[in-house]
Write a structure and sequence with these properties.
Strand content: 25-35%
Radius of gyration: 35 Å
Number of strands: 30
Distance between the termini: 8 Å
Shape: elongated
Largest sheet: 5 strands, mixed
Amino acid sequence: MNKRIWIICMIALASAVFLAPSMAGAEATVIWDGEVELPSGTFDFVPTNNHSASYSTYNFTDLGALMLVNESQGISYNISDAYFSSFGSFSINALNGTNNEPWGTGNSSSWYLYINDVYASRGLGGNPVSNGDKISFWYAPTNTTTYMNDIANATWVMNVTLKAPMVDWEGEIELPSGTANFTPTNNHSASYEINNFTDLGAFMFVNESQGIGYNISDTYFSSFGSFSMNAFNGTINEPYVGGISRGWSLFINGVPAPMGLGGNSVSNGDKITFWYCPTDATSYVPLTGEATRVMNITLKAPVVYWEGEIELPSGTANFTPTNNHSASYEINNFTDLGAFMFVNESQGISYNISDTYFSSFGSFSMNAFNGTSNEPYVGGISRGWSLFINGVPAPMGLGGNSVSNGDKITFWYCPTDATSYAPLTGEATRVMNISVAIETVSSGSSGSSGGGTGHATIAKLVDEEEPVTTEEPQAVEDTPAVEEETTSEPQKFEPVTESNVETEKAQNDTPGFEGIFAVSGLLLSAMFIMKRSL
């Protein structure tokens, strides 16, 4: 009986060991954990195994960061160039007196390099780093079968964080259309008319509210048609020494600006960034990874009233304009107006569409959408609704443009150029996008699958006696402009199905229940048998 009890207890204990959730190894001992500010440029590195060798190495590498910490902390190391000729990087053999273990002795431990918690793609010295990065050295075992390191069971760790750039200002602005006068710092007698929708226009707009000090010069304006940025917020460009000295560099949407300050047009939604950093001594490319200061200006993106795809049926529909309730026009569904009215039928978007000039132009005028009305015309400043098809200004007014399967109809609320009258979509504050899909027609039935006039099945979208509008009819001439009416963002036409990722995560965050139940069952069985045996 005692033997039987002993066997049962051993089975239960073994089940607990193998089925219970695995436990992480002991927490690694921290050798050093801190922040450093790397200087730009290079230094000479002599490896531990080869005192006759000297390598010119960039400070902004993993090795550069380690050497800077070593200078202040006196952390011992053994770094070898044995495989440098083959891989172009160095090997870490030891840190702080802890050596790599001989390979193949069980799960032998070695030093492993991670950057931003990701295993480094190259050996030590071969990985460029940027301010804000985190460099980690883990002393961890290696699986002799998979060759994967197990930092969860590391015994030592060293973390070096590169100081992130100081943010002088960061935010979103809404630029007005038009121009402003600018006087450079070095030439108080000069005055330049600049477009608000330029990098300089955006900066001056921020400066008005934030009072950011600057030094902007027109010394080379006659040669390059743009200004020089000498200082921001008291931080001045350093005298040029290639690859070391820092100065202000201008980027737009993450790309170096093609022109100097004031020479680059911008659009709503763009991001303008001023980096204080050195430039490469050969290519003159700004080294933004070495920046110590930064300023980010984001231009507010247009509000999207609605965006989605609609499936248009063949045929025509009757349309009654807002300004003329006694009129009724038969419109083709495969037109810009036909598409808009189908969207309106499901979304209830208010509108003001007029037939005032229909007899002259054979199309309608779009005066307002969703409570946003055309402003009284002042060239280059006032905003109104402009119609584009496939990214190109529509050749006709609303209702006069045929559409086909796959076409994209866009309504921009923006100003127009005072001279060319071209819509300035980069300055748009509102937008609506309709993607057209033509109704699929089975063989043997009448209809069209590519646009144009189909079978005359009339879908009456607007009642002739009661037009479907959610605002009072208004003519632009008699109604003041509604510039900034607050509206809720329209619901997407196609519902988005939520995934069950969170549910799965919640389940995965409570591991080991299967093991716990199995162990509990075995222990209860053991107790029951013991009781029966006794």
